[in-house]
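ENTRY TYPE: protein
WANTED: fold as tokens:
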Amino acid sequence: MAELQVTFGAAARDSFCRAFGGAQYSIEAELYRLDDPEIERSLKEVLATKPWVRVCLHVEGFPKRYEAKARCAGDAGKFADLGNRSTSAAAQRLMHEFPGAFFEVDDDPKTLVHGKAAVIDGVETLVACANLDRSGFDSPGQVCVDEVSPIDATAALRAIHGSTASDRVGSLAEAGHVVSGPDTATRARIDALLRSPNDLRIAMEDLSDPKVVDELIERNGLPRRHDRILVGSDYNNSRWAAHEFERLRQAHVAVRVVEPGYFHEKYIDSGDEIYVGSHNLTRNGLDAAREIGIIAAASEYGSGAPALRADFDRRWDALRSDGEKTP
């Protein structure tokens, strides 16, 4: 199996543009948000110069649903109307910008499409932490993992088309690196990383799942255990996330806040295995949303593993500690 390639920040944009430009048969992508001029230009060029390449985009139709739900204050009719208008606007934009592409604008009110992934020609898979928009590439924490593997491409395609791990039992996809939701298998695989006997590196845009916080607090009470956690400053915008962050801080878990700017990373390093993808460590990210990520042995990341660790350590060392347990 080929080594997984890792790129950061603006270089991740180049990875997607290169992959799209090299497509010979098909491009299938699941995107929470698509709004980057260079990415869009690369897709339009494929549609213009390679009309035989099937480009299919699966996007979230109501990306700001949680903010809208709070504003609607329980008014289901008003919330539904906002969702319908958002989905319609997203569909119209796609039809206008990519007239030669196939697309699916998801409007399921219960399941957010949050993935940031693409499959090229049924063999190459790219999975990112941040959206394919200017904020995603310019803010801290954009990481892209790129690999060539028919097994993982099959798994990613199934996820893009809405299949869960339970639907894939007995398939080749079961043996690969891809982890996708919503499915109970997602939480089980993440839990396995959190039970590692090694110290953890975790960089997470949002970490507010109570069970995960319980696990991290329990780990912190073990002798000679020194996990390190980076979180985005956006936790302050959610009362629930702020509560869980305070629980970590009060337990003297080594957690530091990346600021200023919006922190997009979703990275868990157990020492033996590494996760990169779209899942936040939240109830929604682990149990409810459509997400796509990669879990692979650190050795399979090749030079990407030390690069991820060096990037984490650089951010960690640049931030102030507050009440952490002494290692």
Remarks:
- The radius of gyration is 19 Å.
- Residues 168-174 have pLDDT under 50 and may be disordered.
- Residues 5-174 form a domain with the Endonuclease; Chain A fold (CATH 3.30.870.10).
